[in-house]
Model the fold of this input.
Amino acid sequence: MKQFIKQMKHYARAVWAENIKEWKVELTYKPDFIRGLIDPLVYALPYLLYGIALVGGRNSKTLQGLVGSGDIITFVTLGYVFIGFLNMALWAMGFSLRKEQYWGTLESVFAAPVPRWVFAMGMAAHSTLHQGLMISVQLLVINLIFKLTINPAGILPSLLVVAVMLIALYGLGMMIASVTLVLKQGQLVSEALSGIMMIITPIAYPLAVLPLFLRKAAMFIPTTYGIMTVRHFLMGENMGFSVATSFFRLALLGIAWVTFGIIIFEIIDQRTRRTGTISHY
Amino acid sequence: MSVAIEVKDVVKKFRRGRRLKKRDIFAVDKATFDIEEGELFGLLGPNGAGKTTLVRCLATLLIQDEGTIKIMGKDIYSNSLYCRRQIGLVTSGERTLYWKLSGRDNLKFFAALYGLDGKERDMRIEYLMELLDLKDVQNERIEKYSSGMKQKISLARALLHDPKVLLLDEPTLGLDPQFSRFLRNFIKNSLNKEQKKTILLTTHYMDEADELCERIAFINRGKIVDVKTPYEYKRDLPHTEVLELRCSGIQNCDELLKQLQSLNSVEKTTANSVDHVTNIKIILPRAEPILSDTIELVRKQGKILGINVEQPTLEDVFIYVTGTRLSEDTAEERPATKD
Done:
């Protein structure tokens, strides 16, 4: 038991060190870091302004009819926050191993006496904190400009929803991270998945406007539950299912995606060690 | 003395080529050798001989297709984490460190991966910085370091967890003579003699292997050709002299080598060309009897720039045993043997 605790402490320190190392490297590219903070805001603003122009104000009766709340600014902003989480899995986590491979440091890291999934957890920790910072800046500025109308009592349950959803996204991130080691042009996979998820995840519009088959497909995507449940807590969106169902399905998806992510990660790790492609770029 | 590294019948092959023309390339072919605890063991061979592949197998970065590898008595495949804890790895590439981080930050990061923390980590980093004379530059970013300093940091990283076994893959490659000398002294005196580390050193510099290693394995085309001490290699060579000729204007080198090979008592001939200058080596019991014939043959094709008769070096032994030179320009090698 003592040995186990010692080992877990070692792994936890490795995860934290990976996170700190990433922050240090990122902060050496200051303009890029600042751009990263502004980008989410720049991408979200056109949607918000477009919505206001179409509706002729920030309240839409059609939206009210579909989800039970007509505030398009709060609706779209909350949805847009989840693009940040998707980016975390598909790009930040997904390309972290490829980045190390490109830098030439992947072999040195993989030669260390920690399981390779520990390194993946380090990437996940950093990506979460990084995206958390970007999302906070995004929410803060949009709130200053448009004054979001949210239920403060829903903030804590919303964070809980996000935490459960992140588990599933970590699985997705691990999957993409390992796939990029084999497919050197892994951005094609990330772009394709990103496009599909942007369409079938109710980010800027309610799920109800999608055709039936896409609505069914959306039920297998964790961000669907994340977005809808957070909007439910913060602005009273009608989900069509209970909060308990949402948590249950999110947990199931989390287990499934993480299991799948770990399996793919292990298979590809073995494959790259057999084919000798760990250091190729 | 117990065995620190045990390599038995290791095969590592890679699939190369396109679609239907895919074929297996044997990077390591039935390699077998043992390294005893505290031994400084060399793996000597030309570029592409399989040295790095073997080291990467030992470091668990590659999985061998056949055979077994044991580090400190444990199989590396089933005890991967244990074995990685016993190993410190230094490779020749400069880009194995985070260039945007300082030397100290690099070591702090890797210390966490190797399970060091707090005071223990700080003391270890302090000690290594002192030992490798890096204290003045420890807070500078790696991108500002010279190649030699980067290699020192790589060495410090490999020593962070005080491993029993060190895998040094061409550690002096691309370094200037001063840094190479420093590293060689450090490896021999500090790491091997004082700290009693087991060291596997791969190199294609024969003088490095000759100077540092207690035993050397010759590796060529993935095969371990022989394992002996440098003294045994030279002692067992049945030839006493090497005739070297530097020539220019040689048009048909293959033909010339064939003619030289046919001279009385010549055992091996090799040639390599750099910038229109051809260096020919002839290994034989005594050079003097064939000197005039050799000069005559070479003069028919070109001009002789210099002639030298020397005692055999480890490189000459390697040529004798494998028919291949150790030098980098292997593409221009033209080995010819009597058998």
In short: Residues 328-339 of chain B have pLDDT under 50 and may be disordered. Chain B has two domains: 3-234, 238-337. The first helix of chain B runs from residue 51 to 58. Chain B is about 35% helix and 30% strand.
